[in-house]
Design goal:
Order of helices and strands: EHEHHEE
Largest sheet: 4 strands, mixed
Oligomer: single chain
Strand content: 25-35%
Structural class: alpha+beta
Shape: elongated
Number of strands: 4
């Protein structure tokens, strides 16, 4: 698609499968084709994640996948030329998902 083809682009349930360089590359491409980018990130602030950590420490589960705090989301967005506008909790304490609303840096 040509640059700025869309008002917004959305990417859900992909970033937890990519490494940092893959996430930043995806953010750059989403930012190239749209003014606003909305992506989901898994965060560590849930009872579900806490139970996974406990089971891992007890040897009953493999290492849980990486989770992202606010600073990590902000850092990756900045590296891709975006600014974090909002982090929306899908269901506080219950859901592992944040929706990050990102916009291009203003000059």
């Amino acid at each position: 698609f040509p640059p700025n083809s869309f008002a917004a682009s959305i990417c859900i349930r992909l970033f937890n499968l990519l490494n940092r360089s893959g996430r930043v590359a995806a953010l750059r491409e989403l930012a190239r084709v749209s003014r606003t980018v909305i992506v989901s990130y898994n965060h560590p602030y849930t009872m579900k994640h806490l139970s996974r950590l406990v089971r891992h420490r007890l040897g009953r589960r493999s290492q849980p996948r990486e989770r992202f705090n606010r600073e990590c989301v902000r850092s990756e967005a900045a590296e891709a030329g975006l600014e974090l506008q909002k982090l929306l909790w899908v269901a506080p304490v219950l859901s592992e998902v944040w929706l990050a609303v990102l916009t291009k840096h203003t000059q």
